[in-house]
Amino acid sequence: MSIIFSDFMSTFGVRLKEERKRIGLNQTDFAAAGGVQKRAQVSYEQDERAPNMEYLALLSKIGVDVVYLLTGDLAANALGERERQLITGFRALDERGQAGVMALISGMSPINDAPRNVIQGEVHQVINGNLTAESQHFTFGAKKSKK
Asked: Which fold has domain 2-73?
């Protein structure tokens, strides 16, 4: 039985460190988020001690994938294939890339109560959304030169 526990613990520490780095915290701040001291955090990451459930529950509140810590399986396994790919790709991005994805999602989400401006011309241009920029200039067509 201790061999199984030992094998489990050796992989748990590695996964815990991976999650801490993914979240972007140092050992001191991550430990504080889990309600423990840095010394305990180091022990967990070095597979010298096992954390309690309170620690794991607190870490889940800051976005740690506790299912991954305990099983080695991403919580995304409960999702469809496309959703798993999205999460895996998102986690691989740096902070700037993640911000870009979030902006893309935000920009594509339908907002039913937002003001809508639709302008149609001869070639049926449609502008949908808020126009808030100052000093906008639009040129439709060009002057025809006389021959």
From this structure: 434 Repressor (Amino-terminal Domain) (1.10.260)
* Neighbouring C-alpha atoms within 13 Å toward the C-beta of 64: 25
Parse the chain into domains and list their residue ranges.
2-73
**Predicted pLDDT at 74:** 74
User: In this predicted model, what pLDDT tens digit does every residue of 93-143 receive, in sequence order?
Assistant: 998 988 888 888 888 876 666 555 555 555 555 556 665 666 655 555 556
Q: Describe the chain by its helix, strand, coil percentages, rounded to 5.
A: 55, 0, 45
User: With 0-12 CB in 10 A as exposed, 13-18 as middle and 19+ as buried, what is 49?
Assistant: middle
The structure tokens 């990451």 sit at: 45
Position 80 confidence tier, pLDDT thresholds 50, 70, 90: low
> Which residue has better confidence, 84 or 29?
29
User: What spatial distance separates the first Cα and last Cα of the chain, rounded to whole Å?
Assistant: 95
Residue 12: exposed, middle, or buried by beta-carbon count in 10 A (0-12, 13-18, 19+)? buried
